[in-house]
């Protein structure tokens, strides 16, 4: 037992400010409510979010798709620059665009923010970014949590994570089993680094002694501004392809951690190889900057960063033109990246042939040509 005159220890004295948490909720409430569709039941602040899924009764065999992710060490850049309203776009892109890869339509998303100290305005900025991105992909932000972790995180530090659920008809699931020889790869341009490989990028800048405030002529802005460019959201474009009854889509791949080849190999069946033409696009300046500034080998670069390709659709060759037009109509640059052929077992240089990635025993990706910068 404590002595009678011992000082009181309160939750606030331990570093947790529940009033700040309440203020953060008030500041973000309207942004979250703005993502809610007519299917959302109830408002903000409940123990659990509710969404009406009675429309699923029309499905013959609905499958739920789920994904969870964060944005990695990109949050360190946001914290260093004290800009927090864009990181939410990255979170939504990392989560929801994984769901659409199987052809699923997102139904809801939730978020989690852990921070050393709740600064209501900062938390509200983060959630506002998440809400803006959710609205752009037509996905209600159904719930979330902000946790204050004094002693575990510094007051200015935070991390974000999210999860989403979608639905797809069982016989409409996209993936390797649909891919055929002769299929064409339709690349969709990235908006920059997206949210992968930032440990490499930050290390390159650290060794080179480049501050985030440094203006780079090739980029047309500062390094920090380039690094905070939000991840492009591909869900609307992918759903436009899937919903077009005149189009047939066999697979998508979301180019995240591991780079283009490693992620593309995940959606190819054993016995097939995708030939990717490195000359089919110009690598954006930020990637060339990282390579030259840090003397990063091409092999390491293409196995870490997206190099300008954020999503790939695999479609029959005769529908490639229509697919390109559909993606372009969504405001995204697209081009023919390569094609799928039978794997004749011809060995390639270890840098140029990728197979067996992410635990998937599937097809292979053969990278040909030399990147254009």
UniProtKB/TrEMBL annotation:
Its EC number is 6.3.3.1. Pathway: Purine metabolism; IMP biosynthesis via de novo pathway; 5-amino-1-(5-phospho-D-ribosyl)imidazole from N(2)-formyl-N(1)-(5-phospho-D-ribosyl)glycinamide: step 2/2. HAMAP family: AIRS (MF_00741). The gene is purM. SUPFAM superfamilies: PurM C-terminal domain-like, PurM N-terminal domain-like. Residues 63-168 form the PurM-like N-terminal domain. This is Phosphoribosylformylglycinamidine cyclo-ligase. It comes from Georgenia halophila. InterPro entries: PurM-like_C_dom, PurM-like_C_sf, PurM-like_N, PurM-like_N_sf, PurM_cligase. Belongs to the AIR synthase family. It catalyses: 2-formamido-N(1)-(5-O-phospho-beta-D-ribosyl)acetamidine + ATP = 5-amino-1-(5-phospho-beta-D-ribosyl)imidazole + ADP + phosphate + H(+). Its main location: cytoplasm.
């Amino acid at each position: 037992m404590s002595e009678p005159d011992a000082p009181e220890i309160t939750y606030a004295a331990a570093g947790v400010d529940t009033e700040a948490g309440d203020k953060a909720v008030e500041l973000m409430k309207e942004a979250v409510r703005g993502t809610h569709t007519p299917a959302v039941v109830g408002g903000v602040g409940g123990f659990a979010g509710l969404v009406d899924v009675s429309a699923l009764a029309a499905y013959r065999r609905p499958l739920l798709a789920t994904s969870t992710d964060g944005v990695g060490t990109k949050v360190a850049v946001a914290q260093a620059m004290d800009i927090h309203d864009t990181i939410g776009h990255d979170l939504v892109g990392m989560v929801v665009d994984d769901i659409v890869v199987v052809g699923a339509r997102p139904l809801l998303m939730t978020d989690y923010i852990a921070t050393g100290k709740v600064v209501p305005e900062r938390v509200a900025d983060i959630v506002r970014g998440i809400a803006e991105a959710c609205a752009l992909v037509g996905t209600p932000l159904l719930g979330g949590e902000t946790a204050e972790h004094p002693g575990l995180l510094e007051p200015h530090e935070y991390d974000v994570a999210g999860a989403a659920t979608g639905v797809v008809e069982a016989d409409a699931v996209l993936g390797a089993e649909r891919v055929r020889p002769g299929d064409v790869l339709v690349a969709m341009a990235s908006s920059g680094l997206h949210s992968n490989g930032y440990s490499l990028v930050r290390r390159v800048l650290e060794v080179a002694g480049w501050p985030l405030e440094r203006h780079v002529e090739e980029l047309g802005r500062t390094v920090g501004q380039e690094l905070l460019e939000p991840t492009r959201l591909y869900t609307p474009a992918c759903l436009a392809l899937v919903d077009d009854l005149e189009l047939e889509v066999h697979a998508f791949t979301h180019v995240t951690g591991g780079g283009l080849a490693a992620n593309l190999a995940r959606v190819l069946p054993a016995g097939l190889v995708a030939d990717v033409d490195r000359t089919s696009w110009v690598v954006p300046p930020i990637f060339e900057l990282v390579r030259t500034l840090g003397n990063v080998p091409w092999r390491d670069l293409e196995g870490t960063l997206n190099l300008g390709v954020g999503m790939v659709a695999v479609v029959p060759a005769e529908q490639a033109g229509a697919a390109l037009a559909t993606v372009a109509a969504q405001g995204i640059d697209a081009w023919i990246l390569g094609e799928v052929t039978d794997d004749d077992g011809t060995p390639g240089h270890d840098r140029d042939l990728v197979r067996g990635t992410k635990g998937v025993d599937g097809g292979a990706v053969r990278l040909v040509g030399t990147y254009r910068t």
